[in-house]
Design a protein that fits this description.
By secondary structure, the chain is of the alpha+beta class. It is built from 20 helices and 19 strands.
Length: 631
């Protein structure tokens, strides 16, 4: 307990001295001495209760910084910022209990902005909902959501931290806190320390309409954001100090006070200023302070707009997709330019992957074919072609097409010669599976193109390209085409080469669109190339749709037959097991296995056929194999 307790008052005090004295005498047997807050304070073993407004508390803090005195805040209608920041109860008795609770006593840091004490926060520009997301109705939320969506402006800023790390960007708004607010007006769910000697700054700068949309969803509907997983629209700085400069005049709000027309703001943290009894709402913050390890400066601003995009945003044009920086594009472009070239390594890998693939097809071996998929180098020039399409880069387009054509010729030549010397001519299951491409194969190509473009643009996921190569399987269809050439079979050539073209067009289009989404080209620049690719996709989709419809029809026929699990003929149960069927237009070819406990006669076969024809309402050609079970 304290030796003395002083009540510091002013003409703006709200609490009754007698009421305070009565409560402390009854519960704690303590006496309070009242005195004007402007008198100098010397006693260290005393507790000073501040019944002051925000401005008076700031003045008191400024006068007594580092005096190592013990303070507590009493509720005051004109001290909203201080009460909110330190979790002070609006109930006088609860506030007095907190003031005498030694577990709530802790050293506090103070925020200073341009030599002024800040009790709550500093706001620059518009944070679009981060401090005012609590709205009464869903209609209010939706209304405010769309109002913000189409009303965002940017200004240029330069940031310099205490470690002299400096960067420039544009932003819609900036908010600086000493610690996170324990308030219903904050969407920040993290507990940012009250005693780490660091300020915390959030910078709102969406690089695209899509990123801004996701940010607004987080604020207005999810209603929480975390420093650990910030939306792409937000940058975060934790530092001992922060200098913010702008070429344009800035207005900012410091604890509800508007300051206009400044070009520079310097914010820093005064560490361990007073011993303050926090409100019980912030008791969890005190537990966190037992960790003496000092936090390092943290800067997470990689997602913020850089030079080229900053210029676009300053012109009040928020692109739908974020644009990649020139530096990002330069690295990727050099990589794709290299991938588009014909090299000895490319030729070797194409030859080996084709030999492996063709051998696997004849051996009907999936593992061998998968090895060929991993070796195949065709994915690289395809992704390069996609970039050429979106950037309208004639070099990339021509070079990629040359490399792809060269690779196709190698695959067809090697597989056809291999087939000519192969004493086998049986069409295996692995070959048949690549003769009837449909819309599902197109979807595989589209998803693989998206994955391929994303993996190439992100260095941390480039190892996933092997999985993409397996998914799209570019070389096996070419190997089947080569086998068709070797066997002089036009149906094999047509079906398998259609599958390869499906993969080529699907990958090119989807990878191109992915590069646009990732910001490597504006839609306007890519429009012509995308149009040609899309028309080609529509053209090849015609036979794919036809094959898919046949696949759906076959599935329906199979389901109808499978419903007939067994038939009873001449008081004998015969179990039916469908093995395969094929729609021949004039009739349906059905292959089945019949299971019974006695031999099946020709009349019984005919009865089964009639029952299946009745269910399908089609003529069928039935091939059966019988299994006799003797009990």
């Amino acid at each position: 307990m304290y030796e003395k307790i002083y009540l510091l008052f002013s003409e703006n005090s709200k609490n009754n001295e007698d009421e305070i004295n009565k409560y402390l005498k009854e519960k704690y047997k303590l006496q309070v001495t009242a005195r004007n807050y402007q008198k100098k304070i010397k006693e260290k073993n005393a507790l000073y209760l501040l019944d002051l407004n925000d401005n008076e508390i700031k003045s008191f803090f400024k006068e007594h910084i580092h005096h190592d005195i013990n303070l507590a805040i009493l509720p005051n209608d004109d001290a909203n910022n201080c009460m909110s920041n330190y979790g002070i109860s609006k109930n006088l008795k609860e506030a007095l209990d907190d003031a005498l609770n030694q577990k709530l006593l802790t050293k506090i840091d103070l925020l200073k902005c341009n030599d002024e004490i800040i009790l709550n926060k500093i706001e620059i520009g518009d944070m679009h909902g981060i401090n005012s997301y609590k709205l009464n109705t869903k209609f209010d939320k939706i209304k405010t959501f769309f109002k913000n969506l189409f009303n965002i402006k940017f200004k240029p800023y330069k940031f310099t931290t205490s470690q002299d790390y400096s960067f420039e960007t544009v932003a819609s708004g900036i908010i600086i806190l000493e610690h996170s607010l324990n308030s219903n007006n904050s969407a920040l769910k993290d507990k940012l320390s009250i005693q780490d000697g660091k300020l915390n700054a959030l910078i709102l700068s969406p690089g695209s309409l899509l990123a801004y949309f996701i940010y607004l969803i987080s604020i207005f509907f999810y209603e929480k954001i975390s420093v650990l997983s910030l939306p792409k629209s937000l940058g975060f700085i934790k530092s001992e100090s922060l200098k913010i400069e702008s070429k344009e005049a800035m207005d900012y709000i410091a604890d509800d006070i508007v300051v206009k027309n400044v070009k520079s703001i310097e914010i820093f943290v005064l560490k361990d200023t007073f011993n303050l009894h926090l409100g019980s709402k912030l008791k969890e913050y005190i537990k966190d302070e037992k960790n003496d390890e000092e936090e390092k400066e943290s800067i997470e601003v990689d997602s913020l707009p850089k030079e080229e995009l900053s210029e676009v945003l300053l012109k009040k044009k928020l692109p739908f997709f974020k644009r990649a920086s020139e530096e990002d594009f330069k690295d990727l472009f050099l990589s794709l330019k290299k991938s588009a070239k014909i090299t000895f390594i490319f030729s070797t890998l194409m030859t080996l992957s084709t030999l492996l693939s063709t051998t696997g097809l004849f051996a009907n071996s999936s593992p061998v074919i998968i090895c060929a998929m991993i070796l195949a180098p065709l994915m690289a020039p395809m992704i390069s072609l996609s970039m050429g399409v979106v950037r309208a880069n004639s070099f990339l387009i021509i070079q990629s097409i040359k490399t792809l054509t060269y690779g196709v010729i190698i695959a067809l030549f090697v597989s056809s010669i291999f087939t000519c010397f192969m004493p086998l001519d049986e069409i295996t299951y692995e070959m048949k599976s690549r003769l009837n491409p449909n819309l599902l194969d197109l979807l595989v190509a589209i998803f693989s193109g998206i994955a391929g473009a994303y993996a190439n643009s992100k260095e941390e996921v480039i190892k996933s390209l092997a999985g993409v190569a397996i998914a799209v399987a570019l070389v096996p269809p070419l190997s089947v085409t080569g086998i068709g050439i070797g066997l002089m079979d036009l149906d094999i050539i047509y079906g398998s080469f259609l599958l390869f073209i499906t993969n080529l067009v699907g990958i090119t289009l989807s990878a191109s669109l992915t590069f646009i989404v990732l910001g490597y080209s504006p839609i306007k620049k890519a429009k012509k190339g995308l149009l040609y690719t899309f028309l080609l996709l529509v053209f090849i989709s015609v036979p794919l749709v036809n094959t898919f419809e046949k696949m759906v029809e076959k599935n329906e026929l199979s389901n109808k037959i499978k419903e007939l699990k067994k038939v009873n003929v001449n008081d004998k149960d015969i179990v039916l097991k469908l093995l395969d069927l094929e729609d021949k237009q004039e009739y349906v070819y059905v292959r089945m296995e019949l299971i019974s406990n006695s031999f099946t006669s020709t009349l019984e076969y005919k009865a089964i056929r009639k029952e299946i024809e009745r269910r399908l309402n089609r003529k069928i050609l039935l091939e059966v194999s019988s299994k006799l079970i003797v009990k």
